[in-house]
Amino acid sequence: VRHFWSDDSFAKEVVEKSAIVNEHFKKIADRIGVTRLQLKGRGMMQGLSCQNGDIADAIAKACFERGLIIETCGSLGQVVKCFAPLTIKKEELVKGLEILSDSVNEVFKDEVSQAS
To answer: For 51, which DSSP code?
Structure first.
């Protein structure tokens, strides 16, 4: 703990990573449509709220098939959540977010191909 909080560099890094998560989630929600996916949370604890738990489960399954373990939450299991450790390397975070994006594209492939 003393190592990470000895100065403000770790806090700045967390803010930067939070912005990366938010940017990726916003792009995903904008691409699919805010009526289908909505941003939830803040900082490093953000999620995409789906219309229902089946969609969230399908996204989580597609992520798992690509090597990313991601959980769902929410009262109906409808939120795909990003709950990465604060110490994650930016490259690993971006890689995971790209896997999530690809997985969302797979689940919503009809909507994504129509928008292109």
So the answer is: S
